[in-house]
Structure formats: C-alpha cells, structure tokens
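hey so i finally got around to running the thing on that chain from the lab meeting. sorry it took forever, my laptop kept dying and i had to restart like 3 times. anyway pasting the input first so we r on the same page abt which one it is
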Amino acid sequence: MKFLVFIIVNLFIFSAFSKNCSKEDYETAEFWDNYYDPEEVYKVGIKIQDALKNKDIEELYSFIDENSNAPRKEKVLEVGFENVFEGKMIESVTSLKPPCSSVGWRGFMLGNGGVWYNGKTLKITSIWHNEIEELPQDFPKWVHNKLTISPRCFSVLWVSGDNYEEYEEQYKIENKSDFRNNVGKYFINLIPIEEINTSWGEKISLAKNIVECNKKSKNLLIKNGYVELIIENEWGKTFLYYKTLKKVSKNNCTNLAPYLKGTCNSSYLVNVSENSGGTYTSSDYYIYGLFTLNDSSEYLIPLKKFKSDTEGRNYIDNFEGK
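ok and heres what got predicted. didnt touch it at all, straight out
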C-alpha cells in the first residue's frame, strides 16, 4: 500500500511540475548531467517562436547576444525585419512544438535547424538570416599579388589548444587568455615570427609566410560563399574554408601588432573553418594582417580573436570610429 502511495505521489509531483515535457525528456536531461531544465527550455522555445511570429525585434534580441551567430540588432532595425528573416524560415521554425530534449551536445533546435539555442544560457547560438552586412569588395576572397590567399595561410587556435600552449610554456606567457585573444601584440615583443620547435618534435608557427603557405593556391574553390581547399591524406579528406567579412584599416591593423617592424598591406575580419569529414566543423573569427617585414618577407598574421562575427564587427566599428 505504501509503495502504491509513493508511486501516485511521484506521478502527481511530475505532472504538476511539467505540463509539456515527458518523463523521458527528464531522463535525457539527467543523461546530460541536468545542465538544462526541459520545461524551461521548452518555454524559451515558445518565446522565440512568438517573437518571430510577431516580428518582435526587442523580444527576439533578448535571446541574442554578441556570441550568437545572428545579424546585429541595429542592422535589423535599419533594413527591416522581413528583409532579414524570411517567411518560409519563420514558418519552419514556428510550425512544430519546441523540444524538451537536446540534440546531443549541440543544444536545442527549432524547425530544421533554423534556430539553435543553448539550454544552459538560454541564449540563441545560431539563427538563419539573410546576409545584410556590408561585405568586402572581393568577398569571400583575400587577394594578394593577383592570387587568392589559401586557407592554409590562416593560423588559428587549435581545438586542443596545443599550438598556443606550446608558446605559453616556451616563452613563459602567464596571461593565457590575453595571449590567445590578442596575439598580435605578442609578436616580436615576446614570440618570434618564424617557426619554433615543439615538444612533440614538429615545427609550428602562428604567423604564416605567404610564399610558403600559398604555394597550392591554384587548387582553391569558391563554394557556398567560402574559399575552400580540400586536403587528402592517408586518413581521408580535410576541408579548409575561409571568408572575408569586414575590411580593417591599415592604421588599426598596425596598432594591433605594435612591435612588428614592417608595413601592414591589408587587413580583414575573417571567418576560418575546418572539417575533417565528421559532423563537427570548427569555426573561428580573427582579424588578420598581411605584413611586409623590414627584410621584405611577407606574413599573414593573426591579430585578434573573437567569439563571433557580431563581436568582431562591433569591435571594428568602435575601433575605427576612434
């Protein structure tokens, strides 16, 4: 009898606690260490859907920040909601019940991936939209001496972090966060332009010599708004991509690498991506500068790292406006 009462009480508690999510949804959350509350993420999904249906920019952007892959709010206000978020996308995103369970580590999805949001922060991580930002003249390419620069030339922080960690250990860099986000100011001051020997027996460099990295520039493709290079080896194919997003003035390029002895020829905010054939594609946002050094050598140098396109554009607008 006591066991029966226990079951009834627990069923009552569960039904009172969650009107929209099932017991299985809560079991899934438990599998993911309860980093989200199923009922809470469901309600956030409803709010996002309502904001899109009502074309409520203020409500929608309460779920969007600089870390989101989304258009900037001021641009949406400038060009109009309908020109950014198309009706078919909104219909797809709002036609189905929001999820109570995550799509693995990727978070929560509305529609067929038109909107993704994080169960922990309850913020949109990505929302489909038309491109409304001003793009560089040669988009998506970065052209130097009439050649399109290869994706090989864009150095990024590895997913493992090992390349930056090697510099941090060898050159005793204590402020790792600043180094990884503002690497341009460390060249020559603390770290060299040239390759270094690593603890695992290879050579690496955070700056890329244009002559060396651009040797296979003829094999490039322009595909889906990116410059693409496919590398084949014994483990399979690796796809390297990049696209230029916003031009940076030469003066501000120089300011981001104050100890370099040379001239900044051109500079852009760039989105660099890599996929090794799996479901995960890394994506990074950096300001890079193309420098001619005093010895006439030319290097493409990472200057500053950002979490998103939006953060990078906002930084450049503020930086250039000073």
